[in-house]
What we know:
The chain has helices spanning about 15-25, 55-70, 80-85, 90-95, 110-115, 130-135, 165-170, 175-190, 215-225, 245-250, 270-275, 280-295, 315-325, 350-375; strands spanning about 5-10, 30-35, 40-45, 75-80, 100, 120-125, 145-150, 155, 175, 195-200, 205-210, 210-215, 230-235, 260, 300-305, 330-335, 380-390, 395-400, 405-410, 420-425, 430-435. The protein is an alpha/beta fold.
Amino acid sequence: xxxxxxxxxxxxxxxxxxxxxxxxxxxxxxxxxxxxxxxxxxxxxxxxxxxxxxxxxxxxxxxxxxxxxxxxxxxxxxxxxxxxxxxxxxxxxxxxxxxxxxxxxxxxxxxxxxxxxxxxxxxxxxxxxxxxxxxxxxxxxxxxxxxxxxxxxxxxxxxxxxxxxxxxxxxxxxxxxxxxxxxxxxxxxxxxxxxxxxxxxxxxxxxxxxxxxxxxxxxxxxxxxxxxxxxxxxxxxxxxxxxxxxxxxxxxxxxxxxxxxxxxxxxxxxxxxxxxxxxxxxxxxxxxxxxxxxxxxxxxxxxxxxxxxxxxxxxxxxxxxxxxxxxxxxxxxxxxxxxxxxxxxxxxxxxxxxxxxxxxxxxxxxxxxxxxxxxxxxxxxxxxxxxxxxxxxxxxxxxxxxxxxxxxxxxxxxxxxxxxxxxxxxxxxxxxxxxxxxxxxx
Length: 442
Ligand code: SAM
Ligand code: SF4
Ligand code: F3S
């Protein structure tokens, strides 16, 4: 008998990919997605632990779900993702509404757990990436989106002192090359025209095939060959793994988008060292310069942490100085959030008001860059991959080369194609325009 599942996803693109793959799996045992979150047989919260009171947010969310189901049958309540991995049994002890805790490397067990569920509380948090990917290799990735995610690598061995990822996703694991290509083929067949390769450290991808190391650069070259595929992206990359072969792809590949999300975290070498980042600002600038030399059009975005323990006014100025050297067109910036279990968790925090003030200054600069860059595109004709029609609107959604959302007047037949859009207006996050008449779509 068919049952309804509601999946709510928090966090990064990897969680989004995982939620889709969980669904690909459980629909084989009769669970079908519902948009009505108050009427599901199974409710899955796919959680993120990267910042702030992640754990408390999950309990709060469960409190809300409890209310929704007060007068109905309780759904099977599953907590998945990084909070599940980090908190595991403790969550079951604290909140009796939770039935199942399942960490990111145990999703291959979800069907059997659901099929045998009889009200008993279960926790699955082993790091078993090999079995997980083997299992999912045999299940079709059913994404029919124009732009799809494809996880190629999981986990992290770098242990930056502020970060929970090595503890929630486990050690670095790279999927077999051929399996990734097979999944990409299925996505392309299903209508994907853009694929974003995913990994917590996506450019650390390394797979040994008959004593030959295959890297993300090899994946890019292989994907390049598929005619229907128009665009290739990857995220999130680490500066230390920005190897020459990957940099070279920006001159050889016609499909790799000229937009690099390369988290720097801080502009101060002292802070980078305290963070255990293993790269220096000069390394970062060198990568920037090499890429710009290959293609001046390449744009950058980044992640910044402000108020890391030990950050002085001079260190913060170094971060601002970096913004004078690199025009980041779009970036994420947050105040340092101590994460339980990480090396930085016990360090003395700097004054909260100082951190807030620094964040405001940094964000003003970053947002101004973003607004300025978007404004510079007004009046120009740009290439946009049209992804979908907007709900209840006579408008379409797509993205330019630099991942900026574009809302435009167009036609259904534009979907899945790279179209020329005349930009008429913009704000901080979005460009607005019209399909240029008589322009042939690619
Ligand atoms: N692997 C990527 C790298 O090392 O460049 C980053 C991936 S991490 C999932 C995404 C971002 O979250 C980081 O770049 C960092 O800026 C932010 N982040 C991680 N831990 C944080 C913390 N404790 N406080 C604030 N931001 C944090
Ligand atoms: Fe976290 Fe990235 Fe550092 Fe790994 S490299 S610990 S994912 S910030
Ligand atoms: Fe969050 Fe886990 Fe992704 S902590 S950012 S969901 S890897």
